[in-house]
Amino acid sequence: MTRPAAGAEPVKVMLTAIITLGGQSTEKKFEVTVQPMPADLDTDYTAGYLWTNFDASGGYEKIFFGYSEDGLNWSKLNKDANGNPQPVLVNDAEGSDLGVRDPHLIRSAEGDRYWILGTDLHAEGGGAGGSGWNQLSASQNLVVWESDDLVTWSEPRLVYAGFDHAGCVWAPEAIYDEATGEYLVFWSSGMKSGVQGNHIYVSKTRDFWNFTTPELYSNSANGEDAGRLSGNIDASIFKEGDTYYRLIKDESSNSIRLQSSKKLLAYGEDLGDETAVAVGNTTMPNRGAGFKLIDNSGTIQVKDESGNTVTKPCMQQYAWSYEGPTMFKFNDRDEWCILVDEYGRGSAAGSGSARGYIPFVTTNLDQPNSVYLPSDDEFVMPDELNHTNARLLALISTGKVMKLNKVVNANSIMPASNSCGKEFSIKIPASSNHVIHCEAKETTGTSLLRIVNGAYARACCTA
């Protein structure tokens, strides 16, 4: 089904469902209205990178935004007048665990909607309540927000995504499946029985309200990375060309592994002998069986800033203290970045304190032993983005219309309107990127639109 072009009239279509049970079939028709594409849809996503992350604030974990122009040097957004980052979203949904962790931001396939998925969990910050680090009987809900502009977000909603044997539903992420028109939502969990360690599971959804029954999506028990089904978490998937690349944390070494597959889900012969994998007291097909390891346990020779050839350890050599990977391609070149949370020093990292998120890079994802860590002076991850304050698990490039509110320390303040509730569009020379901040001045009743670092921004200011 294709949506009408921007400016066209909505189109009514008839959907026909054939329902079969016990040899009997019936047909039911549903009339639906297909809305046109929005007129101001963002199509250029080259302005920078937006990163959702969490931190404890006021006793509970909340969602913050980070931003980078080049993907290597990062800072937090939404700072107050004293330069302190302020939360953007709070998990105050009725019946929630009171905190939100591991946020993941996904843009719809058509580009007109955004969702943030998070773990419904309060474990740090000192506030009362919450299930803490209980992995055997924690919340089986996801926290979901949605927006059409990255500025105005819905209230948080809890959506059940688990199943009877799951002890928790942690670190959710999602990717669009072009083959079926659905979104795959995958997350990590141990079994309530506590046996066999943690696994990755996957459900399907079209609306982030309704989910199919979860299935196993863990590391293959066979092939190049055999024997590691018993413990892996923190999956993140990126598509480049016709290949899907998956990152997972191997819990036997607390290191990150890179895998690839031509298909998101394994069915039929792609399952091999993983049609009924034992997980706790049940068996499941392993829909992740198609992903195969791209080995990065060796070394690579690269040029340093002085042009000298140096040997660097590849990503899998960084072990015992690594988790929460995410990946993106740089906007301006054929190079990829894999951001990994270093919460301790071990193996190839050498001595010193944990650095929080660190960026591994490669110019060829398919090449074994090509993913390495640049020198410390080649990237900046601010203190407020380190592991002890926030585990950063999602990133998205945002484009030239970066609609983020409440960014202070503006370099210009422009009067917008004496009446509130109106949407404003302001054109600034497109020489750099920008974010926005709306502020109501109680003394005059005038709404102001603050523009930072300038090009084009849009917002709705209300008193």
Structure report:
- The chain contains no helices and 30 strands.
- The strands form ten sheets. The protein has a four-stranded antiparallel β-sheet with strand order 5-4-3-25, with no helix packed on it.
- By secondary structure, the protein is mainly beta.
- The chain has strands at 11-21, 24-34, 49-57, 60-68, 75-76, 100-107, 114-120, 141-147, 157-160, 170-177, 182-190, 198-205, 215-216, 232-240, 243-250, 255-261, 277-279, 282-284, 292-294, 299-303, 309-313, 322-329, 336-342, 356-362, 394-397, 412-417, 423-427, 435-441, 446-452, 456-460.
- It is globular and about 70 Å long.
Which class of secondary structure composition applies to the elements? Answer: mainly beta
Largest sheet entry: 4 strands, antiparallel
Task: Give the DSSP E fraction (strand runs of 2 or more residues).
Answer: 35-45%
User: Number of helix segments?
Assistant: 0
Please give the radius of gyration in angstroms.
23 Å
Low-confidence stretches: 386-463
How helical, in percent, are the residues? under 10%
